[in-house]
Design a protein that fits this description.
Strand order of the largest sheet: 2-3-1-4
CATH class: Alpha Beta
Shape: elongated
Low-confidence stretches: none
Order of helices and strands: HEHEEHE
Radius of gyration: 20 Å
Helix content: 25-40%
CATH superfamily: Multidrug efflux transporter AcrB pore domain
Distance between the termini: 48 Å
Number of helices: 3
Mean pLDDT: 87
Largest sheet: 4 strands, antiparallel
Strand content: 15-25%
CATH architecture: 2-Layer Sandwich
Number of domains: 1
Number of strands: 4
Length: about 140
């Protein structure tokens, strides 16, 4: 009888377990992937990324430090990081915020700025993923 009760309690407890394969990231990094139109020069990519750094990152108290990679992605600094191939129209900015709360404040502000001031640039802000990289989520 005890075995049946323990089994029933464990089956009922499954409803309390979150249904996700990998937990959300607990790291303070944000990654901004930049994709300009494919005929863009590396100079244009650099100019847009520098303007973004000046407008959004420099002097922001929530940001500890950042680094940008123009024409290629960042080097692999954690196993789950998805390295991007080199292209003149591609760039990547790695932003390290002060903490998780700062990351959660900075992300929507960056998305808004990119949407409003960098029209024609496909920039995607994402936290550093835990587990295998998936890129952009599928949206319906």
């Amino acid at each position: 009888i005890v075995t049946v009760l323990v089994f029933a309690a464990s089956v009922a407890g499954f409803g309390l377990v979150q249904q996700q394969f990998f937990p959300p990231s607990d790291r303070p990094e944000l990654i901004v992937d930049w994709n300009l139109p494919q005929n863009s020069s590396i100079t244009e990519t650099r100019d847009q990324m520098e303007r973004f750094e000046q407008r959004a990152l420099a002097g922001n108290p929530d940001i500890d430090h950042f680094s940008s990679y123009i024409g290629e992605g960042a080097v692999r600094f954690v196993l789950a990081y998805d390295v991007q191939p080199a292209n003149p129209y591609f760039g990547q900015t790695v932003i390290v915020t002060r903490n998780i709360e700062a990351r959660n404040r900075v992300k929507p502000a960056l998305e808004k700025l990119l949407r409003e001031e960098f029209v024609g640039t496909d920039a995607f802000v994402k936290p550093l993923e835990l587990g295998p990289p998936v890129g952009r989520p599928v949206q319906y």
